[in-house]
Amino acid sequence: MEFGSRVLVACLLSQIVCTGAQEEAEEAACSPGFQVKQYHVEYDGGFLKDQPLLQVVFDDCAKNQGVSFEVSHPDFVIDEDLNLVPRRDVMDSGTVIFIHGLSEHADDMAQVDILGASPRSPQILSGILGLEDTVPYRTKRSLLVPPMFVPENQRAPFPRSIGKSHVISSDMKEDHIFRLTGKGADQDPKGVFSINKLTGEVAVSRALDREAIAFYHLQVSTTDMSGKLVEGPVDLDVYVIDQNDNRPIFRESRYSGEVLEGSPTGTTVMTMTAFDADDPNTDNAVLRYIILRQSPEKPSPNMFYIDPERGDIVTVISPSLLDRETLPTTQYELEIVAKDMAGSEVGLTGTATATITITDRNDHAPEFTHSLFQASVDEGSTGVVVNLTVDDRDDPATGAWRAIYSIINGDPNQSFEIHTNPDNNEGMLSVVKPLDYESTMFHTLLIKVENEDPLVPDVNYGPSSTATVYITVQDVNEGPVFFPDPLMVTNLENIPVGSFVAVLNATDPDYLQVQSIRFAVLRDPAGWLSVNPVRGMVNTTATLDRESPHVHNNHYSAVFMATDNGNPPATGTGTLIIKLDDENDNAPYVVPSVTRVCEDAKEVNVAVIGARDKDIHPNTDPFNIELGKQPGLEKTWKISRINNTHSQIMLLHSLKRANYNVPLVLTDSGFPPLTNNTELKVQVCTCKKNRMDCSGADALLTNMLLLALLTLSLLCL
Question: What's the main place this protein lives (predicted)?
Fold first, then answer.
């Protein structure tokens, strides 16, 4: 029943709104669907199995791939050759057969009229339910409800009759009434349809909108006065027939597209698509597109064309005229109109604006504004010396305009660099290595300019894409130059005051001028040096001490300056680094100078001491640490060697808690060795339960275990 309803709807709609559709379709290049909508077959008592009746003409404009067909009569099919063929011998064909063709690209209906045939028997409720054999009495009365069709947007008066339900019966009882149920009757939206209880006539109560609801599925039944079901329910399908009451609508009011200048005629720029809410199976929603207006109209009012069916906007203007640099503007506005009813005069319209931008391609090479540029620069300086200017007719916002400069000749030492100024596209030529007037007074450079984007194939870089730059170097009075810089010498510390250290060497790079040089001390942190202003000889003015805080890693640095007599005078600086060799001029000393032991010899009575020396090897360790020559000292204290730098002092018997000064003699290993007679302050403290109490000292908590571990670690050295 569902397929039959669809067939009836398609047929009725075709008869109402598609009278001229076939003629218009034939005029088009390809209209998807049946190319012939209606066929005729003579009925001569019936149709034989597998004998073709006719051949339908169907084209979905895509080679009919995946197309399928449905036939309203179950005993007929469409074969591979598009022939309408009976499945069996058919006597009851009816007067009309509908064929539905469907593919990804087409959805269409055709009608076959069978001339001379009798109508098929109506479908009755008992047949639908399959009760013909099991409930014989129901054959006396049957409910028949054909599909009904209602145009949308009907005007008053309402209600309007749309059709009638029938009871095929010879004895319809007077107490039996019709009942209508479903959405649109007793369900939301309620009251759209009603039924005459006695006659079965169905009426619509108000205007319908197909775009809101295109199909109503109702049910009709008959009951007695008590509400007991007599017949049904049987489906009643009500189809809303479309009217052309919706204009085509573009999703946006303005659309944007681009096309490259010089594009071939027929280049697709963009696609305009409008939508129509009317029935897509009717001409009410078949759209055609036109360009109503182009602005500006030069160089031609018809620079673009729009495909009336697909909405594709393509170029019509020749590639030579589609030149961004010669067109009056780079943007064109098109007013696009979409009209339904396949573009007929009665169709409704919708409009939108298409803005098309002519984009740039690199069809113009950059050209220098001058073939020769000149600049001057002081020797010894760096920075930009000249800006090179170019002209380029391409779009400044693209790589077809942006310039890339390169030095192709005249710079063997890479003394120059050139970069593009992003603001104005000029080439900024800079000196990156200071130039020397005495070496070269003039430089001649050959500069080339190109674009970031490659040129189109038919355009080449010409002579104007290169330029010559003359650079004149200006002489500047340069300061004297020390050689070598730094100057490194080695001296023994403690040499006599006035000793010779070094001779400074400085030359004036302005050798074309005759100038004298004078030397002076610029920075001498310790004040140890002097220099002869004419000869550059450096001597000591104080003792050189390797252990001075001004000496770092055995090196002492001083800075000298040399000044010429030019106008104005120029100064250069140089560094003298003196490496100082060590002398054994520092005796060792004890660390720490104060240590602690327990008063009870049974407790921790050992302390670790070490020796230090400001000198460096071999004038330092191994150190010899001994007790002084005080009589009886060895009976109270004992010193034992741990390693080259440390020894331990041990209390041999208990002493009272007090501070004791123990004389020590420390000797280094220098040549000759130096000895230091000094004293070690030993605090004898009271020790109880890992606590050490020393008189006259701050309260101090000492962990005896840590002291023992320290002693053991030193013994392992």
Answer: membrane
